[in-house]
Amino acid sequence: MPAIGYGTWLSKPGEVYAGTKKAIELGYRHIDEAWVYKNEAEVGKAIKEVIAEGTVAARADLWITSKLWQCHHRTELVREGCLDSMTQLGVEYLDLYLMHFPVAFVPGCDEAVSADQMDDVPIEDTWRAMEKLVDEGLVRHIGVSNFEIAELKRVQAVASKPIACNQFETHPYYQRRELFEYCQSHGIAVTAHSSMGGGANAMRKFHKSPPLTDDPVIGEIAAKHGTSPHVVLLAWGLRRPMAIIPKSVTPKRIQANKDEVLALQLDEDDLAKIAGLDKPGLDGCYCHPRTPWLGRSEFTGDTKHYYG
Ligand SMILES: NC(=O)c1ccc[n+]([C@@H]2O[C@H](COP(=O)([O-])OP(=O)(O)OC[C@H]3O[C@@H](n4cnc5c(N)ncnc54)[C@H](OP(=O)(O)O)[C@@H]3O)[C@@H](O)[C@H]2O)c1
């Protein structure tokens, strides 16, 4: 899997097509998608065009990840969810297909807002259905996203194919060392989402700490190397090592997020300072600290527990 991918979440209609094309023209070869982003068709249009125009020689030159949404967790719906993503993206196979969250919604529900919209599908059953996608040649690798160690262990206990990847939020304020090390020691590749602190995420407003990109330590390191805080945060991720999938629809940033990030050499002093920024818990985690539907027994149907 190429270590730098192009993130596509929250890209507005119209922007994600142009952004994806630009990213591939600038040398990105990994696209991070999901059924629930509702923009796979636009990304698929960009993929089709870059191949037709010769920017890349063939589909095989790209690594395309998509994710199974929670309304498709029932075993009889897993294949349907996957095929829908593949059709939208216009591809005959996916390089990586992830279970987006370890939680199921009832069929047809995009976002559960009440407990009765939660579905009782064990992640083990969904995983077994995902393994069949590999057997059928629809996907090359399968993995998970937003899984904690306990959930990884549940899947590992029944899996006949390796968990290729766990994609989760991690950045200097939310380093998740135990989870990271567990993945490393079990051969599970880590992809970081929200590497720049999830500033664009709607959940940002529930947190009291200032944006990670405004952190003075990160700013000082960026100034020392003559680059931006965003580039420092991404370079830290790569160095850890993890795959990173920055989202941007701005051509200059799309370029910086690859070229400047690859060029930046963080030194031991930088790494020690960044290691000291970890603040696990609600203050450090912007994206999914306890998404209402993550803990079924604590289901509130709203976001009030974000206030701590
Ligand atoms: N598995 C999951 O549950 C999950 C959850 C969240 C995200 N993801 C994936 O991870 C990807 C990245 O995460 P993310 O979208 O939350 O956030 P992100 O990549 O950390 O940040 C995106 C935001 O930062 C801005 N930005 C990007 N590069 C910049 C730069 N060099 N300088 C200044 N600003 C910059 C973007 O603005 P512009 O676009 O306006 O340039 C956008 O507002 C997503 O797109 C998605 O593919 C997965």
TrEMBL record:
Binding site for substrate: 100
Name this protein carries in UniProt: NADP-dependent oxidoreductase domain-containing protein
Keyword Oxidoreductase attached: yes
Keywords: Oxidoreductase
Annotated positions for site Lowers pKa of active site Tyr: 67
Lineage: Eukaryota, Haptista, Haptophyta, Prymnesiophyceae, Isochrysidales
Lineage top rank: taxon: Eukaryota
Transmembrane segments: none
Active site: 37 (proton donor)
GO molecular function, one term: oxidoreductase activity, acting on the CH-OH group of donors, NAD or NADP as acceptor
Record domain NADP-dependent oxidoreductase: where: 4-278
PANTHER family tied to this protein: ALDO/KETO REDUCTASE
Organism, scientific name: Emiliania huxleyi (strain CCMP1516)
The keyword Oxidoreductase appears for this protein: yes
Pfam families per UniProt: Aldo_ket_red (PF00248)
